[in-house]
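Appendix B, record 7
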Amino acid sequence: MVTIDAFKQLVLSLNGVEELPHFEKTSFRVKKKIFATHAPGSDIICVKLSEVDQSVFCAIDKTMIYPVDNKWGKQGWTLVNLKKVRKTILKDIVTTAYNEVAC
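C-alpha cells (predicted):
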C-alpha cells in the first residue's frame, strides 16, 4: 500500500514536475503535459503510458493496474490502486509515465 502523500512525494521528486488543478482532480505535469492525475478522496491514480507499457504493467495484476474503461484507456491512460500496489512498482509506473510525456 502507498499513501497519497507518498505518491505525491514520488511524483514531485521528478525533474520539472508541476502540480496543478485539472477540473475536479489534481494533475501532475511535465513540459505542460499531464502524465498523472489524482481525484481527492480516492485511492486510485491515473497515469499516461504507451500501449506497450500499459499492457506490461497491467499483466502484473489487473485488479491493481488496469486501463481506463473507455477511449482514454485505449490511448494508454491507466488506473493504479494505491491500496494494492507496492511502492517499487509504483515508482516504475510513475517514472515510465513521466518519461512517456517528458521525452
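Remarks on this record: Residues 51 and 75 are 7 Å apart (CA to CA). The chain has a mean pLDDT of 97.
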